[in-house]
Structures are given as structure tokens and as C-alpha cells.
Design brief:
alpha/beta, 2 helices
């Protein structure tokens, strides 16, 4: 049996020509602090801190949109939606799951991201 301790990081990809745009989106619009990324991968990318895990952004050719996604819990889902809409990011309603509110959005590069808030 594998005994997991935590999620360390998630990786998303963007087209090579959109890498700098992705850096600005996740740093300036989403508000994530950028982290040091060692130069050992043979391809460019960026790392960001999301509470106690990292978000890694790498490059690959564009892929069709799918239901694959990452999900982050947030403190105030309504404020997050307003912030995204202020930056012209379309908020997509999701099916109701008992005990939580949630929505998703696609970043400008086609990656689906879900934000959720658990109900008391």
C-alpha cells in the first residue's frame, strides 16, 4: 500500500509561444507567487506556490479541451468569481455536489481549473 502524505504539485501545460503569457496570467491575474525553478528540465517553464503545493507550468503543443482539471479550495468562492470576471475570465457553473459550492474556468490556454468552497 502507498501511504500518501500530501499533494506536492500539479502540472499544467501551455503552447510554447504562450509561456510568458501564462506566467503573467497566473502571477498577475490569479495572484500566485512565483517560485524558483531549477534549470534542469531541458525545456522552459515556471513554478508558482499555491498554499502548501506548487503549480508547475510547462510547454507542449495545444490539446483539445477535456474534463481533465485541477481543483483548489478557496476561502471565498463569490469573491474569487468576481475577481476572475473582473479580468474577463468566464466563470462556468458546475453540477451541484452536496456540501460544497464550486465553479470552473478555463485559463487562456485551455486548462480547466475548478475552485470550490466547502459548506459548514
Amino acid at each position: 500500500m502507498i501511504e500518501f502524505t500530501r499533494t506536492d504539485h500539479v502540472n499544467i501545460c501551455v503552447p510554447p509561444e504562450k509561456l510568458e503569457e501564462a506566467r503573467l496570467f497566473y502571477r498577475d491575474v490569479i495572484g500566485l507567487p512565483e517560485k524558483y525553478r531549477p534549470d534542469v528540465f531541458g525545456a522552459p517553464g515556471y513554478w508558482f506556490q499555491v498554499v502548501d503545493i506548487e503549480l508547475h507550468i510547462g510547454i507542449e503543443p495545444p490539446k483539445p479541451q477535456s474534463i481533465r482539471h485541477i481543483a483548489f479550495e478557496v476561502k471565498n468562492l463569490d469573491a474569487a468569481a468576481k475577481h476572475l470576471e473582473k479580468h474577463n475570465v468566464q466563470v462556468l457553473q458546475e453540477a451541484v455536489i452536496p456540501g460544497r459550492n464550486r465553479f470552473s474556468f478555463h485559463d487562456p490556454f485551455g486548462n480547466r481549473v475548478e475552485l470550490l468552497q466547502y459548506l459548514d
